[in-house]
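Appendix B. Chain record.
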Amino acid sequence: MQGKILVRKNRSEYPATKERAAFVHDDLMVVYRDAPDAGLRAIYFDSEGHTIQYEVHAASDGSQVVFVSGAEPSAPRYRLTYARAGQDRLKIKFEIAPPGKPEQFATYIEAGARRAAK
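Structure tokens predicted for this chain:
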């Protein structure tokens, strides 16, 4: 769309363990601006039925991008951080704050990603 939106797709395949069957997690995120002078926003959907609306905050030096959902008293709050970790590498951190405690984020998952060779 002529550089107006960014679409991120993810598919994670998890093998079976003694505790659970194998499963696949698919998700989609669209990053956009509501208006030319507005900040970035994002919407996330996944195969588990989650939909999350995010505000997007990018560091001025390009070192990281943080996606934060709004605080609602009866719902969890989410924070997803992508941080540069060297040439063609990222650190990824997903955190969740419990309902009623919107600033008490706890790490749910940490991962890394790298740019695939062309």
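Further analysis of this model is presented in Appendix C.
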